[in-house]
Design brief:
Blueprint lengths: L6 H15 L5 E4 L2 H12 L5 E3 L15 H16 L6 E5 H4 L3 E2 L7 E4 L6 H10 L3 E2 L8 E5 L2 E5 L6 E7 L2 E9 L4 E2 L6 E4 L8 H12 L10 H12 L2 E2 L7 E3 L4 H10 L6 H5 L18 H7 L7 E2 L4 H5 L9 E2 L1
Parallel strand pairs: 1-3, 1-14, 2-3, 6-7, 15-16
Antiparallel strand pairs: 4-13, 5-12, 7-8, 8-9, 9-10, 10-11
Helix pairs in contact: 1-2, 6-7
Length: 331
């Protein structure tokens, strides 16, 4: 059977075409993870900094520990988007995710731990629990922390590796990255490390109110803590924002069917009209997704035409033996 491009590739081409003419758009709502993946590559080809939320399909009130990896990725992408100083930053969000309570930018502060600092171990552990970290014996994924005497392991965004902090009683005497597979520290010592919340940073009076709301939670969550139910409590604390407060969004594709399903089955969501009024990327634009077994031959065949190649990475050109000097590109 002949090969064909997935629907998501054509969605990405439509979005690319729209953004070429409307660069002020700062976010796109898509159907699912697949569309988000293809759209992210398309927008990177415009030279923009892209952050993509995962497809978080939990219903309001669900125990979010069942969605731990998606929830941690949700927080990491959102925190990165908030922290970016670039004016052309872009947020891609599956429709099921962007209609969840969105933590306010004020909830993404960081703490910095320096070599030689003296720390209160109990206070740090409590703070990380309030920030949504799961306390475990051995860390395996982002959003986990382990306190074992004078050894503290933390796996947090934006770091790609976990961090091990060694103490001499309460003073930091070593900060290193560790290999999750072997649980061994790397040789290079770090002077300091920034710790970002696993979910969100709520402290002080707001933290007390959050703990009270969690304690009185009547859901079926097995463990009632910030990780399990905290996200659902943010609106009651006034610490969530709507999607149109964080970026000028468009719809990368028609989502009427998805909206029908979401608004029948889910509660506590923004008004449907706030989504329906958004600009939809036209299906037919100036750029098209193209499946070519031999891109180099295709370009040479049309050498008399002006061709713009939109790719996220130059290595994709090199892999097809296309001369970077002669092949027009958009980057």
């Amino acid at each position: 059977m002949p090969k064909s491009l997935p629907r998501a590739a054509h969605v990405a081409a439509s979005l690319f075409s729209l953004l070429k003419n409307r660069p002020q758009i700062g976010g796109a709502i898509v159907k699912d993870d697949k569309s988000a993946y293809w759209c992210a590559d398309a927008i990177k080809a415009l030279g923009r900094e892209v952050f993509a939320l995962p497809d978080l399909r939990a219903d309001f009130g669900d125990d979010l520990r069942s969605y731990q990896s998606e929830l941690i990725a949700f927080s990491e992408a959102l925190g990165g988007f908030y922290a970016s100083k670039r004016e052309d930053k872009f947020l891609i969000a599956p429709i099921a995710s962007i209609l969840k309570p969105i933590p306010s930018p004020k909830l993404f502060e960081t703490i910095t731990l320096n070599f030689g600092d003296t720390i209160d171990i109990t206070a740090l552990q409590k703070r990380l629990i309030d920030w949504g970290y799961d306390m475990v014996d051995t860390i395996e994924q982002k959003g986990e922390a382990s306190f074992r005497g004078e050894v503290i392991d933390i796996f947090c965004a934006p770091h790609e590796n976990a961090i091990r902090i060694l103490l001499d009683q309460t003073q930091i005497e070593s900060i290193r990255y560790i290999d999750i597979a072997t649980q061994k520290s790397e040789k290079t010592e770090l002077e300091s490390v920034a710790i970002r919340p696993a979910l969100f940073a709520i402290e002080g009076e707001a933290g007390k109110r959050l703990r009270d709301l969690i304690a009185s939670d009547e859901s079926d969550a097995f463990i009632k803590d910030a990780l399990g139910v905290g996200l659902w409590k943010l609106p009651a604390l006034g610490l969530s924002v709507s999607f149109d407060e964080i970026a000028d969004f468009c719809l990368a594709e028609e989502l009427s069917q998805e909206l029908d399903e979401l608004y029948i089955n889910h509660d506590n969501m923004p008004p449907r009209k706030s989504v329906e009024k958004l600009l939809v990327a036209p299906e037919i634009g100036a750029f098209k997704a193209l499946l070519a077994d031999d891109p180099k031959t295709l370009i040479e065949f049309h050498k008399t035409k002006q061709i713009t190649i939109a790719l996220a990475y130059e290595t994709q050109l090199k892999a097809n033996a296309i001369d970077l000097k002669n092949a027009p590109k958009n980057a």
